[in-house]
Amino acid sequence: MPSDLSPVYVEGAWTHREVSANGARFHVVELGEGPLVLFLHGFPQFWWTWREQLIAFAQAGYRAAAMDLRGFGGSDKTPRGYDPITLTMDVTGVIRALGEANAAVIGHGWGATLGWTAATVRAKTVRRLVVVGAGHPRRQRAALLTDPAQIGASKHVFAAQRPLAAEKSLLRDGGAAVGRMLREWSGPEWPPDDVIERYEQAIMIPGVAHCSLEYFRWWVRSLPRPDGLQYQQRMRTPTEVPTLHLHGALDRTVLTSTARGSGRHVNAPYRWRLLEGVGHFPQEEAPKLFNTEVLNWLADDEPDR
């Protein structure tokens, strides 16, 4: 393990491993045995956001795995490949690399966007879908173009478009911008100082700041381009995967009005839960509530609409 990856290789009951998928190498943490549940983090985090879930889901009889997305944590920092289709092929490739044909996919933020995409373009690899802190990609695009409130809440997305300057801002003062984002986007009781420190250290890993911003750059710059329009066209197809949609009522970066209504893109059982008193990071802000909601839903053979 290179010394600069020490913030990522957190010791615990879990096992760290590396797998190859879609032409890149990915850092995966796993715990437990049973049906595979794959957790996908968002910005500005890495696999560690799921530490409580890894333990709880393993105890509940699942093989719980959390990966670092391309460009984050201990995974490869490639020069290209930050469009949703390539990133989704990363996810489905990791499922296969773990020896499974499919998984329950639980995604937060960008991880939720990739979950939505996988459940649409590679539906056979997604057994169940849980999305957290994100609307369906077509809802997200529409809000970013037309909703003044969501546009105002997305200032970090537009700030990311500045070449080099955005990276410098993210890395200044030991990654202090990450701590500010975590505090601004969460509810009033989170995050503690040690959590902020961990995420600030992780953004300082060489290449992570640049790669993490490439996600946002593709999202904005592709709006008028053929690749972006083709992606949105592909996402017109409703997903046939049962979906649980959790959203923090105090989320100030993806507004409730943006996330709500995503069920129109699901032609399968769909359950919406608005979590009161919680911001953008329900899995960390209220892990017991989050775990109960998801585990109960996974155990339901006939999830309601």
Write the layout of secondary structure elements.
Blueprint: E1 15-21, E2 24-31, E3 36-40, H1 51-59, E4 63-67, H2 84-97, E5 103-108, H3 110-121, E6 126-132, H4 137-146, H5 148-153, H6 155-159, H7 165-185, H8 193-203, H9 208-221, H10 226-234, E7 243-248, H11 256-259, E8 270-275, H12 282-285, H13 287-299
Helix pairs in contact: 2-3, 7-8
Verbal overview:
With 305 residues, the chain is of the alpha/beta class. Helices cover 43% and strands 16% of the residues. It contains 13 helices and eight strands. The chain has helices at 51-59, 84-97, 110-121, 137-146, 148-153, 155-159, 165-185, 193-203, 208-221, 226-234, 256-259, 282-285, 287-299, and strands spanning 15-21, 24-31, 36-40, 63-67, 103-108, 126-132, 243-248, 270-275. Strands 1-2-4-3-5-6-7-8 form an eight-stranded mixed β-sheet, with helices on both faces. It is globular and about 50 Å long. The model has no long low-confidence stretch (mean pLDDT 96).
The largest β sheet comes out as: 8 strands, mixed
Q: Largest sheet, order of strands side by side?
A: 1-2-4-3-5-6-7-8
* SSE-based structural type: alpha/beta
C-alpha Rg (nearest Å) = 18 Å
Number of helices: 13
Offer a few descriptive terms.
305 residues; alpha/beta; eight-stranded mixed beta sheet; 13 helices; 8 strands; 16% strand
Short recap of the structure:
Helices cover 43% and strands 16% of the residues.
